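Thread title: Can someone regenerate the structure for this chain?

I was given the following input by a collaborator and told the matching structure tokens would be attached. They weren't. Posting the sequence so someone can regenerate them.
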Amino acid sequence: MSRRRRRPVTMLAGLLVLALSASLLASGSMAGTAAAGAPQARAVPLTELTVASEQVAFGLRRPIAITGLPDGRMLIAEKDGTIRSYHPDTGLAPDPIIDLSARIDTSDNERGLLGITPAPNFARTGILYIAYTSLPAGALTLARLPINAPERLQILLTQEHADYGNHNGGQVAFGRDGYLYWSTGDGGHANDPYKSGQDLGTLLGKIVRIDVSRACGARPYCVPSDNPFVRDPSARPEIWLYGLRNPWRFSVDPVDGSLWIGDVGQGKWEEINHIRPWQGGANLGWSCREGTPVFDQEQCRPGVRYVDPVYEYDHYNDNCAVTGGPVYRGFRTPEAWGTYIAADYCSTRVFAVRPKLRGGYETAVIGYLPTQPSAIGTDVHGELYVLSDLPGFLSRVRFERVPAPAGRELRR
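Best answer:
Regenerated them for you:
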């Protein structure tokens, strides 16, 4: 076929993409970013949504992280160092597929195997990336291993964390840029004892960004050249974001590559941060601030710009610690497409946040999850699941429309 005859087809495809983008932007479901194949149903106000859950597996031992695989399986990390496999068609496999317990320090309530994610090319390589606290002294550890040969585990990066057992972070996820992101806590205890949050010389209290597709010198990874502190001799070049206390679950929006971070507060405020790909180097405030209020004036520096959370909530009504979740990009409930959810570990309240088309954020409390939500994740199709720490089970989560009051229809 001649080039002249192909042009109208290309133009038509472009017009269809533009039309789809315009439809999504008009619905407010994407806050300025379109993706091919996205649902075209109009997003409804968050106040017209609620969540419902259905238990699909039980018998887990302190499940703490979950990730989806291309073949439809879900991998569940248990705190003691074991990894379990679940498939919606066959249920929870009776035995762990990986046992790393000989490497894992579980000496404190918050130590253990903490995070798991497949490599972008997992279907070909079978490589998993994990985060854990290692024996003998609880060092924060980032490693990779083949799913079928866990004995070939390779440690990529460590950060000493011996004095206190809490605030370990531990989420791992790949960005749309192909780089691996890893969260770490501030060093534990209370009041940021090492003042790690604002210290660029340590990986504590940070989100790290590295290139694991290649090695550089003695390191089994490379530092991306556009990391914000690569030319600062006083800073760790792996740092992407700083000023975090205990980022207990962040996620990458697969549509626009932005990071959504649930950062656990100390005594008063829990916060959710939304960081766009161009905001590398952002300072999220801890321990100058807890949420937006000032926490430790001595840690505040004149002229420093702190990035505000997009949502924060207090510890009243049984709230205690935020568990960050994902942005919903599934297809079962197109009205909820583009909605970020998080939950509180104690109250189990679900907080929904969605960017508005013209700036700002829409927020709402949209229900409750099962007891002690320790991680919220998605399967390969973008549908939601939640882990319950104790007694240890897995639930499928779905959005539902709130019934309209008598005599009034829901807005469409």
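The CA atoms of residues 292 and 302 lie 16 Å apart.
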